[in-house]
Amino acid sequence: MSTHTKTRIVGSAVPRKEGVDKLLGRARYIDDIERDGMWHGATVRSTIPRGLIRSIGFDRNIDWSEFAIVAAADIPGHNHIQLIFADQPCLADGQVNHCDEAVVLLAHPDKRKVREAATAVKIEYEPMPPVFSIEESERQDVIVWGADNVLKSFLLEKGDVDSAWTGAAHIEEGEYRTGAQEHLYIENNGVIAEYSADGGVTIWGSLQCPYYVHKSLLAVFDLPEDKVRVIQTETGGAFGGKEDYPSILAAHAALLAMKSGHPVKMVYDRMEDLAATTKRHPSRVRHRTALDADGKLLAMDIEIATDGGAYSTLSSTVLSRATLHSPGPYLCPNVRVRSRAWATNTVPYGAFRGFGAPQAIFAVERHMDEIAAAIGIDPIELRRRNFLHDGDTTATEQVMREPVILDQLLDRALAESGYDAKHARFAKENRASPVKRGMGIAAFYHGSGFTGSGERNLNSLAAIDVTADNKVRVLVSSTEFGQGTNTVLTQIAAEAIGIDYEDVMMAPPDTGIVPNSGPTVASRTSMVVGKLIERACLQLVAQLSQNAGLSETFTREEFFAACERYRAAKGEVVSICRYEAPPNIFWDDQKYRGEAYPAYAWSIHVAQVAVDTVTYSAEVEGFWAVQEAGRVLNPVLAGGQIEGGVAQGIGYALYEKVLLQNGHMVNNQMTNYIMPTAEDVPPIHVYFVEIPFSHGGYGAKGIGELPHDGPAPAILNAIRDAVGVSFTSIPLLPEDMFQKLAVSVAVREAAAV
Amino acid sequence: MRGNAEAHELIAPGSLDAALDLLAGAPGQWTPIAGGTELMVAHAAGRLNAKRLISLWGIPDLRFIETTAENIVIGACATFHDLRDSSAVAADFPLLAKAASWIGSIANQSRATVGGNLVNGSPAADSSPALLVYDAEIELVSVRGKRRVVYTQFHTGYKRTVLEKDELVYAIHLPRRFAQHRQYLRKVGTRRAMAISKVALAATALVREESVCEIRVAAASLAAFPARLYRTEESLIGHVLTPEIIQIARRALLAEVVPIDDIRSTAEYRKSVAANLLEEFLVSLKTGGPQQ
Amino acid sequence: MSVARQAIEFFVNGETRNVHVPPMKRLLDVLREDLYLTGSKEGCGEGECGSCSVRMNGELVNSCLVPVLQAKGACIQTVEGLACDGELHPLQQAFLHCGGAQCGICTPGMLMAAAQLLANNPRPTMAEIREGLAGNLCRCTGFKRIFDSVLSAAAQNELPMASETHAR
Questions:
Q1: Does residue B1 belong to the interface with chain A, where contact is any CB pair within 8 Å?
Q2: Secondary structure of residue B248 in the 3-state scheme
Q3: What is the CATH number assigned to the segment(s) C6-81?
Q4: For domain B60-175, is the CATH number 3.30.465.10?
Q5: What is the pLDDT of residues B262-284, one digit of tens each?
Q6: Is A673 within 8 Å of chain C by CB?
Q7: What class does CATH assign to B182-287?
Q8: Prediction pTM value
Q9: Domain boundaries in chain C?
Q10: With an 8 Å Cβ cutoff, is C126 touching chain B?
C-alpha cells in the first residue's frame, strides 16, 4: 500500500532538516556548550595491559583539595557498564585488564590543571601475564576471562557438512584476516553531566543511543528511571563508535558531578579517544569449501574467530552477525559455521558500521575468487552459478520470500563499470606497464535490523504529537549523527499525514521527552522506526477523523484546525505506536535457525585498482556500488550513505592500521592513523534498484552499513587480478604487498651479482 | 590541548636585528618559531619544551624570494605557498616547487616555512632532497655577521644542525645552473596528501652522448638526516647507462642507505622502493622521455 | 611560571576584536573561548583534520597551529562570516542542495577551504578541488558530494572576493 503509492516528499531530495545550522556553524556540539559553574574531568588510565593494582599515589606537589577525585569505591550503585553482560567495570577495581583502562577520575574548574593533575597520579601494579592475540587466547595457557577466554560462541549447521567432502570434485581452503579499525569520527567523544540529590543525573553528550546510556546509569547510580535523563547533542559522526562507549564516559562525568557538586564536562582529545575507546573487532576466518565439477557449492565449513578485547561488551552480537553473514549470498546445501569471540588484554572492541559483516564478507568474497582461480572458473561465473534466488533457503533455513535480484545487480554493476572491456584491456596493458590494473567484485547481503527476535525484545515505542503552535513532532530516541535520521523520519511523517515537510520537526532526543524507539544501530532506523512513525501518523489522522471532524481529504490548514479541536477536547494531540513484528519471523536462538533477519539489502561492488610495482602500493581508481535496499527515501542522503561507507571500506582495506605495542595503540594521532583524503578517494558511482519492502518505513530497508561490507574484498580481488598475487589479510599496506611482490626483483638482483 | 599557553613566553621582535640581539643576549634560551607547523603540534601534545619563543613570523627581512642572474635566494621565512607562487622557482627549480606542493595541505603550505623545514631537521623533510640536488647553500646570520654552509654540511645528525645558539637561518641560495639537467623527484607517503615521507628521492643529472657527466642523488628517510647518496653517484659518473650499470647503481644505493623501521614503514621497504625510484629515474634518462 | 597576558587586536569577520590572552594561546582557542565563535572545531589539534581551518589575511590556515600573537592585526574569516545578512553564501547553498554536509563537524573548515579555493580559482578542475580540500578530512561523505557542492557553487560564478574579509 504505502510502499507503492506515488509520494510527494518521501523519495525526494528535500534538504537536510538540520542542514542550515550545520552550514552556518551554529550547530552546537558538546564542546561548544558550557553550563554555569562547570568543571572539567580527566581520566587516569592504566599503563599496563593486565595486573593487580597495588597502590594509587597522589603527587604531594599538588593541592588535591581543589579536585574532586573518584575511584571505584565512590560508585553508589553497581560498578559495571550494563550492556549484554555486566563484566566491564565502570572503573577498574583492584585489577586492570587492558592498557588505558580507567582507574581514577579527577575534576577541577581549570581544564588544563585537571589534565596535568591526571599525570601526577601514580598507580603501582603487580603485572600479570597478558594475552594479545586470538592465537594466544586460543592456546588457553593464560586465562584472562571467564573459565576459558571464550566471550561467546555459536554453532550454525545446515545439512551435513562432513558427508560432503568425499565425492566433491574440488575442495578449497583459505584463511583470511582483518585488522582493527578506528571510527575516526571527526568529533571526539564528549559529555557534560549534572547531578543533584533530588534531580538525579542529567547527561548531554555526543552519542547514538540515549536509552543505552540511561540504562547504564540506572545501574551505576542505583537510581529509578525518572531520575536519569540523557540528552543527545549534535553529534559529529559516530559509525557505531558512540553506541556503547558513551555509557562509560557518561558514568564517569556523572560520578565526578556527584563528587564535586558541579556540572562536569569530559571531552576527549584525539590521542585519548584513539587509545581508549572501541574499535572494530579483528578477525580470523577459515573456509573449507566443497564444490562439484561445475563449481556449484556442496559444502561450506567456516570457522570464525574474533578478538573481543578485555570485556565482552558487544562481542556476542558482532559474532552473531559475522556468523550469519559468513556463507555469503549463495545457495549451499551443507553449511557449518563455528564461531568464537576471544578475550585479550586490549581495549574492548565494539560496534562499527557493519558489525561483524565486513569481516565475514571479506573472507567469503576473497575465498570465492581463490576458488575460482584454483578450479579455473571465471569469478563472475562462479558467483552466478551459486547465487541465492527467490524461494531458496539460506544457511539458517530462512526462505527467501522477498525478491533476490543478485544477477540483475551484477549485470548492472558490470555494465556501469565497463568491467569486461577493462578487464581485457588491462590484461594486455599490464604486460609492459609498471602500473598494473585489475578489476574485482564482491557480492553480498546485509541483514537489516536486529537479528531474529531482537526487534521483538526491543519492543520499540514511537510517537507523533502536535504542538500548540502547529508543529508536528516526531518523538523517537533515534538520533541524527549525519546519516539523515532527522530528515527521513520527518519526510515520512509529512508524507503519511499529508502536510508539508516544513511542518514537521524532531522532538529533542531527550529521554525526558521521547519514548524508547530502540538504539540507532543495525541499519534499523528507516525500516523499523520509519514504519512506526508511518503507522503513528496514520493512527493520528484516524484519531482526528473519529474525534475532531477531520474529513477524508484535507488541506494542511484543516489538519491543524482539527488538531486544535482535538486539543481542546483531550488536552494534547499525541499518537503512540508500538513495534509489530512482520509475520513469519521465527528465530531459534539455540539452534541458530529460522528468519535471521526480517529483511536483507543486496549489493554488488566493483573496484578498479592500480598497483604501482615501483612503490608496491595500490590505489582505487574507480568504484561502483549497485544495491537493492528497498525504497530510497531521500536520494541525496541515500547516495551519501553509500559513498561514505565505500570510502570507509577503502580505508579499511588499504590505509587504516591500528598499531599496538603491549596492548596500547601507539599510532594514536591523525598523523599516523591514516584515512583517505580528498586526493585519495576514487570516483564512487552509486546505483539503486528499488524493490519496496512492505514492512519498512515507506518501503525502506536498512542502508547505512551495507556499503562498508564490499570494498575490502572487491579491492583485494582486483589486486589479485592486477598482479596475480593473492593477499588474504587487511589492512593491506605497501609494506605487506612488498613482501610478496618484491621477491621476483630480489631474485633478479641476486642473479646479477 | 595538553600544552599550557601560560607556560611559554612568545615575543615578536618585529625585525631581524631585534631577533638576533635577543638570541645573542641569551644564547640557547630562545627558540625561534616561524609558521609554527611543527612547534604548535608539540605544544598541543604537551611536549613543547621551549619556554621562551621568538616569533619570526611577519619579519619582512626573512620572507622574500629574489632572483639574480646567478642565483635564486629564498628567505628563511618564505612559506611553501610563496615557493609555489614563484614563477622563478618554477622555472629554475621545478623539484622545489613540486616538493612545496607536497607539504601537508594548503593550510600547512600557507604557514610552513623553508627555514623551519630545514631547522627542524627531520630525516623526512620534504624540501631537503630537492635542495640537496640543487647544490643549495644555507646562509646563516647572527649578531656576528653572516656565513654560508653548503647544505650537504648543514645536518650533522638526527635533528641536529650546524646552527650556533645565536644563529638563524637567513636564506637559501640556489645556483641557477640546472636548466639543462634532467630532474626527478618522487615522494612515497602513506597517502597522496598530508603524508610524512616514507622515502623520497631527488636527482639531477647531465647526460651527454648517453654518458653521465653530472649526477646528484639525494633522499629523505633513508638515514638520520636527508643526504646525498655519494656512492650511488660514484657508481654512475662517467658511465653509459646500460642495464648493467643501472643494476650496479641499484646495488650501490642498497648498500649505502641506512633506513630504519619506524611507525610509518620498514627499512626493507624503504630500501627497495628507493632502489626502484632510482631505477625509474635512470631508465627515463635512457629513453629520453621527460621525467618532470 | 605564568606568562603575562597581552592585549591583541585583530579583525574577525569584518569586526575589530580585542582580546587579553597569553601570546601562545592557540588562535582556535581564542576564537572559541574568548570570542565565543564556536563554529571552528578541534578535531585533532595537530593540523591534520582541518576542522579548525579559518582564512587569515587571505590564506587558509589551521587555527589550532597559530599562536594568537601571530594573528595580531590580521584579517580573519571564520564560518560565521560567510553568510551575509541572513542569506546563505553560495557555497553554503550548494552544500545544502548537494548534500555536502552529513554530521556537519568538518563542514565549517571545509567551507573555509572551499571559499579559499574559489577565491583564487573561481572555476577549478576536479584535481584542483581535490587538492584544495585535501587538508580537510571528512569521515561521513566520502567527499563526493562535497566535490559536487564546490563545482555547483563555482558554476554560479558570483562569489565574493577575498578582500571582502578585510575590515574597513
A1: yes
A2: helix
A3: 3.10.20.30
A4: yes
A5: 999 999 999 999 999 999 999 99
A6: no
A7: alpha beta
A8: 0.97
A9: 6-81, 90-163
A10: no
